[in-house]
Amino acid sequence: MATYTLFKPQPLLFTSSSSSIGGRKKKKSVVHVSATVNASVASPANEEGRLERPRWAGETPLPRLVGTLISFKPLYSLMKLGARRVLISTAEKSNVPWREMTRQILESDVYQELETVSNPSVVYPDYYLKPFHAYDEGNLSWLAAAEAEAATISIAIRAIPTASSIDEATQAVRGTWLNTVEQHHLQYSGNSAVHDILDIGCSVGVSTRFLSDKFPSANITGLDLSPYFLAVAKYNERRKPMNKPVRWIHAKGEDTGLPSNSFDLVSLSYLFHELPAQATVNMVKEVFRLLRPGGTIAVTDNSPKSKVLQELPPVLFTLMKSTEPFLDEYYLLDLERAMREAGFVNVCSVLTDPRHRTVTGTVPL
């Protein structure tokens, strides 16, 4: 059994202030989901399967059959509902208070943050306007934003089902990701420090907070295409500040508008499986432009070679694909090759937990 030495972040705190929804007054409530655990966390072995990618992904008969089923709208609606129920029930059985966390956000004063983070000049690409994650509006809704943190915590639970607590699962997933990123930067950056970090696809700021805990002296920018997610991120930061104030930016990851050579580390967590392949390639090129010489790109996402993912039961992978329209493109894309073609060197891919890989690369010195 593998054992990892991990950092110790601060507990996560979820609160809701008194508010009125539908004429009903709600009292203030607090939910604690701690991310603090012992320094050593046990994890099941990170095993690769025998295939380059799961049989249910790509252009073979099985994924075509699944695609045909999903394209039938009445059946798709049932799949989408089923996928959502599975996500929520699985989370709550693992003590993730999904509905309570969602309620706290929706009944808070988060709505006032939307105008402060929205960029009215943003033009949404077509792929972002498609339904996914069982939301008809995709990430452009308050419900998706309110549920994002619970969904993110659930990623760790699914990855480490043998963990004794949410905290232990979170540490096994997030801790190994951050340690892998740090080790890559130390090895290949030419001793350059991490002063400026960009978190692309930051969602509601969960990954941003972990980066802040790992690199407490760094200036961090969180960028996302959903103003609703950014509003929740800013609201959460207002309730519990990070080590340094975060700059939240509403923009496309493939066209950020940020200055070239302005970051030492760019992180992209659980983002690329949500994108068409061309958007991913364009984003990798944009990251190369944004990083300074010796800078590090760090991608963490589903691993095509994960034994766990390759052996998913048909019902589960069908439900999953019903909420992820670009999953086949993600598994067919050679990400490491795309990174090298963009100019990155020292490209490394590590299975950092049973389901996920972390792929890192360096801008030449």
Automatic annotation (TrEMBL):
<dbReference type="GO" id="GO:0008168">
    <property type="term" value="F:methyltransferase activity"/>
</dbReference>
<protein>
    <recommendedName>
        <fullName>Methyltransferase domain-containing protein</fullName>
    </recommendedName>
</protein>
<feature type="domain" description="Methyltransferase">
    <location>
        <begin position="197"/>
        <end position="295"/>
    </location>
</feature>
<dbReference type="InterPro" id="IPR050508">
    <property type="entry name" value="Methyltransf_Superfamily"/>
</dbReference>
<dbReference type="Pfam" id="PF13649">
    <property type="entry name" value="Methyltransf_25"/>
</dbReference>
<dbReference type="InterPro" id="IPR029063">
    <property type="entry name" value="SAM-dependent_MTases_sf"/>
</dbReference>
<dbReference type="InterPro" id="IPR041698">
    <property type="entry name" value="Methyltransf_25"/>
</dbReference>
